[in-house]
From TrEMBL:
WD repeats: 77-111, 127-169, 171-212
Protein known as: Coronin
InterPro entries per record: Coronin, DUF1899, WD40/YVTN_repeat-like_dom_sf, WD40_repeat_CS, WD40_repeat_dom_sf, WD40_rpt
Keyword presence, Phosphoprotein: yes
Quaternary organization: Forms homooligomers, but does not form complexes with the other coronins. Interacts with Arp2/3 complex components, including ACTR2, ARPC1B and ARPC2. Binds actin.
A Pfam family that the UniProt record links to this protein: WD40_4
MF-aspect GO terms: actin filament binding
Length: 474
């Protein structure tokens, strides 16, 4: 009698765990817009959640530690005039976030170091170039200030955020709505999934389609396509019989898939989240109550099912934490932020290990926050590899630079020299210790201002409650 041999993998016993109720973000009106984006973006400092907003579009930006019930008057980012469809944090600056909206614009925002204390309605830059709603925004993985946007006008535009200009416009490549766009590891290529059932690999700077596959998935429902670390492409979609599928393709030859797997006959679009360090793909279906995860290897069947994490409630969206935001001491290899109808619930994926030592095999060097290139270098044709960092001592964030947008304006150029000279004179006059004291004083003033604002909010709330109690008493 032949015994079935179980494939060895250090991720076979990965288990997911939802956090306690007091560590969730409660009383959030998650957006009800019918658009298949994740509605949530996370980085090591903040979680951003697209919410229902009257008279325009808005999203919440919460410091990770601000758990519990979120007050209805908590400040939002609210500059769009139509519902927000997608948000993404800049990988090179944890205080910068981009948003795409039904109002046909992309906006880039600078979030204060300690989070929002008042509603933010003034973006750093507004990027206008789409004629229909913008459903996808995606930052370049290696070049600073390079942002991609895709809209329902079937265009992909690549912007230099530092100058606020549209540098590349791919307008004749997609005859229908673009479902997803993914950058390759070094950002030299794009992979798109379109409503015409084609998956395309595009060289954006040459404005050329390198490879394409017609009917990658035969079903009419939305597809997703992402680049893997080895250059292969992973897709999710639907079969002709409306069964959900996943497939693996070689990017240089997409005639036949490396493998195709049928999953189930649910309706929800599968959102793939990929960890390049461990080669694990997590699939979160919209409207599902589960997260399935698979390991991708060089051996058949290439995509190996690992396990499923299930909860009772379906997910409206999902945020995925970058590797440098995880707790390496607890062997945490992924963290998701699951959106319910009225709350956001963190889910932690861990590999059980007995040792307290740093687990090198779980945490190879990962992408750090430093860009390899400036925007101008990338647009000129240069490529750069991601600058990797070690997580051995946990990731400690360095100070982020403010995002500055330089537009050619005669007045600005005339005023600039004076403005630049002023701080240099100051530097020569003041000794080093006083500069440190000034920084500390500024920090204390910021804290004092936030406390004062909080007291004012509480006073208003108490006054409202007293009025309500008085009415009840009458």
């Amino acid at each position: 009698m032949l015994r079935r041999v179980v494939r060895q993998s250090k991720f076979r016993h990965v288990f997911g765990q939802a956090v306690r109720n007091d560590q969730c973000y409660d009383d959030i009106r998650v957006s009800r817009v019918t658009w298949d984006s994740s509605f949530c973006a996370v980085n090591p400092k903040f979680v951003a959640i697209i919410i229902e907003a009257s008279g325009g579009g808005a999203f919440l930006v919460l410091p990770l530690q601000k758990t519990g019930r979120i007050d209805k008057v908590y400040p939002t980012v609210c500059g769009h005039t139509g519902p927000v469809l997608d948000v993404e944090w800049c990988p090179h600056n944890d205080l910068v976030i981009a948003s795409g909206s039904e109002d046909c614009t992309v906006m880039v925002w600078q979030i204060p170091e300690n989070g929002l204390e008042s509603p933010l309605s003034e973006p750093v830059v507004v990027l206008e170039g789409h004629s229909k709603r913008v459903g996808i925004v995606s930052w370049h993985p290696t070049a600073r200030n390079v942002l991609l946007s895709a809209g329902c006008d079937n265009q992909v535009i690549i912007w230099n955020v530092g100058t606020g200009e549209a540098i590349i416009n791919l307008e004749d490549m997609h005859p229908d709505v673009i479902f997803s766009v993914s950058w390759s590891r070094n950002g030299s290529l794009l992979c798109t999934a379109c409503k015409d059932k084609k998956v395309r690999v595009i060289d954006p700077r040459k404005k050329k389609i390198v490879a394409e596959k017609d009917k990658a998935h035969e079903g009419a429902r939305p597809m997703r396509a992402i680049f893997l670390v080895d250059g292969n492409i992973f897709t999710t979609g639907f079969s002709r019989m409306s069964e959900r599928q996943l497939a693996l393709w070689k990017s240089d030859n997409m005639d036949e898939p490396i493998c195709v797997q049928e999953m189930d006959s649910s309706n929800g679009v599968l959102l793939p989240f990929y960890d390049p360090d461990t080669s694990i793909v997590y699939l979160c279906g919209k409207g599902d109550s589960s997260i399935r995860y698979f390991e991708i290897t060089d051996e058949a069947p290439y995509v190996h099912y690992l396990n499923t994490f299930s909860t009772k409630e379906p997910q409206r969206g999902m945020g995925y934490m970058p590797k440098r935001g995880l707790d390496v001491n607890k062997c945490e290899i992924a963290r998701f932020y699951k959106l319910h109808e009225r709350k956001c619930e963190p889910i932690i994926m861990t590999v059980p290990r007995k040792s307290d030592l740093f687990q090198d095999d779980l945490y190879p060097d990962t992408a750090g926050p430093d860009p390899a290139l400036e925007a101008e270098e990338w647009f000129a044709g240069k490529n750069g590899r991601q600058i990797l960092i070690s997580l051995k001592d946990g990731y400690v964030s360095t100070k982020n630079r403010d995002l500055k947008v330089v537009k050619s304006n005669v007045l600005e150029t005339k005023l600039a020299p004076k403005a630049e000279n002023a701080p240099t004179i100051q530097k020569h006059v003041t000794p080093q210790p006083s500069a440190k004291m000034e920084d500390k004083l500024e920090e204390v003033l910021r804290e004092f201002k936030s406390l004062r604002d909080r007291v004012i909010l509480q006073d208003r709330r108490i006054a409202r409650l007293e009025e309500q109690v008085a009415k009840v008493a009458l």
